[in-house]
Design a protein that fits this description.
Helices cover 35% and strands 22% of the residues. By secondary structure, the protein is an alpha/beta fold. The protein has a single domain, classed as Rossmann fold (3-Layer(aba) Sandwich). The chain has a 6-stranded mixed beta sheet with strand order 6-7-8-3-9-10, with helices on both faces. It has a 4-stranded antiparallel beta sheet with strand order 2-1-4-5, with helices on one face. The structure holds adenosine-5'-diphosphate and magnesium ion. Magnesium ion binds next to α2. The site of adenosine-5'-diphosphate (ADP) has 12 residues, from β2 and α2.
Length: 283
């Protein structure tokens, strides 16, 4: 008897959207080679929000740039939607720490910049750009230049620019770490709200434990020398999330677990925390 065939839809749904398999990266410099990422494997499902968390220099940006096709792995492979990443692609939107807006262009024209680069028709996208700016509360600022906007506003424009061509995947490299603490908290909530409307697969690089725990479905801790994945942990908080969750014992316990993993990756031993206080940690 013939085995039942799985329908193509079922197979596609079960496959991860981003598949990172035994990826390694060594930078060959004039001095000694730098092994930035040791063999690393991680999958990200469609619609998932995954943070890469770890201290400075542990290879987070390197991994993100390889996913974006802006750096080539020296070993292993990365595929997006089943095809191997070999160069920058259209199905990705990237947001960096600095908004990197064009200073002579208005907020609206900055959002439209990828549309011009990709030679898409401007008019329908102008409407979409205005809708995106309205969504992040910048309707009244569409004609302002970046120098007339605050840091948080510039980063909102950068988010709209990354979303304008409706990519499947958003890659974000410490997008809020240059902002003050209050603006950063506001941006975390704003990003959660944006993603409720525009469902995306997100890979988010941060060195903030709290930010990773608040935003993510999964947090992947990177560390060790050379760096690889130390922990891959599901965040057990329901959505939509509001600030109040940060005060719950469950959230505090998750953050503690993440911090201990990071410390262990660096020193080989976690710092001394009484066992009783570690209870409630969610694996
Ligand atoms: P993170 O984003 O976690 O701070 P990076 O990916 O930027 O880490 O860097 C990881 C390691 O690779 C660091 O030791 C860094 O100095 C090194 N590195 C990053 N980019 C380059 C490069 N272009 N050439 C050489 N070494 C690099
Ligand atoms: Mg970095």
């Amino acid at each position: 008897m013939l085995a039942a065939k799985t329908s193509p839809e079922v197979t596609a749904a079960a496959k991860p959207l981003v598949s990172i398999t035994n990826v390694q990266k060594t930078y060959f410099t004039r001095q000694a080679p730098v092994q930035a990422v040791a063999s690393t494997s991680v999958d990200v499902a469609r619609g998932e929000f995954v943070s890469l968390l770890g201290p400075s220099g542990c290879g987070k940006s390197t991994l993100l740039m390889m996913i974006a096709g802006l750096e080539q792995p020296t070993g292993g492979s990365i595929s997006l939607a089943g095809s191997e990443v070999r160069e920058p692609r259209r199905d990705i939107g990237i947001i960096f720490q600095d908004a990197t807006l064009l200073p002579w262009k208005s907020a609206l024209d900055n959002v439209l910049f990828p549309v011009r680069i990709l030679r898409l028709p401007i008019e329908p996208y102008r409407r979409r750009a205005r809708e995106l700016l309205a969504m992040v509360g910048l309707s009244d600022f569409e004609n302002k230049k970046p120098s007339q906007l605050s840091g948080g506003m510039r980063q909102r424009v950068a988010i709209c620019r990354a979303l304008i061509h409706d990519p499947d995947i958003l890659l974000m490299d410490e997008p809020f770490s240059a902002l003050d603490a209050i603006t950063r908290d506001q941006m975390n909530v704003a990003l959660s709200e944006i993603l409720e409307t525009h469902k995306k697969t997100v890979i988010f690089v941060t060195h903030s434990i709290r930010e990773a725990a608040f935003l993510s479905d999964r947090v992947v801790v990177m560390g060790g020398r050379p760096s690889t994945i130390m922990l891959d942990m599901k965040m057990p908080f329901e959505r939509p999330r509001r600030f109040e969750i940060e005060e719950t014992p469950e959230f505090v316990a998750v953050c503690r677990k993440l911090r201990l993993t990071i410390e262990q990756a660096h020193t080989g031993v976690p710092s001394q925390i009484p066992a009783a206080k570690q209870r409630g940690v969610v694996e």
